[in-house]
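Proteins fold reproducibly. Next comes a concrete instance:

***
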Amino acid sequence: MNSNLEFEKPIRELENKINELKGFAKDNSLDLTHEIDILSNKLENMKREVYENLSPWQKVKLARLQERPTSLDYIKKLITDFTQLHGDRYFGNDRAIIAGIGMFEGIPVTVIGQQKGKDLDENIRRNFGMPHPEGYRKALRLMEQAAKFNRPIITFVDTPGAYPGLGAEERGQGEAIAVNLMTMSRLKTPIISVVIGEGGSGGALALGVADRVCMLENSIYSVISPEGLSSILWKDSNLAPVAADIMKLTAQDLMSLKVIDTIIKEPLGGAHKDLDITANNMKQYILGELKELRKLTHNELLDRRYKKLRSIGVYEQV
């Protein structure tokens, strides 16, 4: 799949030149191996130069990329015997949140993830990954069930934010998110949260109160979108790239601020370049953390989670 990211344009142009040269050599029975190798080396150097020096705004674009793997993609790679469960037992089923039970490396787990679409039709069905209150209540139902049966919880965060529509507000969007925050802080079972794309505001945080919070290398996590911030501060959404620079929303920024626990490496160019590598890196991290968390008593688990949450934002005044 080819993205339309502007900063990738030189890379795409060089890739096209290499492919044209290979085709020309094949059609004319010519040995152009040396020339192709030179261009291929140039391409690899160009990729490293571009992808290892992305600006915050470029990472926002990459995190939002439609080709980027979704929660279901990772569930298919990591979870065996996955059984999806539906509905909040109050209003209905929200397709923006995928939730169910399955096996992770022999460990029974509950998995909950925000789900975007792969195309326009699916995005409409999934509400572009923006959950309604019933989605968060479905997640809450499964999390409480997980604690009852002592199953660890794995959440995948990928949303621009909770849906702000009139119906969602009427059905208690704010209350649903608040209850999730409170309940997750008290659940007596390990929780690992992975930001795989966008982590937008309270809509993301409703699945993000966890013992371990990690982010994929090119994901973002913030209280508001860059467009929203620039509209509020400067009355101009076109200044979103400037806003992204000051928001500290990248995985690297949040790691330095100790908001998250680790950064999961992606293939050069993004998770969509090689899902298997990304999923394997994620698996190794989750497995290692689960082994440690499952050794803790319930009281130890809750005490450490409390201290972790209280330590976010602590600073020394000089």
Summary: The mean pLDDT is 93. Strands lie at 80-84, 97-104, 107-114, 153-159, 191-200, 212-216, 220-222, 262-264. The longest helix spans residues 9-27. The chain has two domains: 6-53, 62-311.
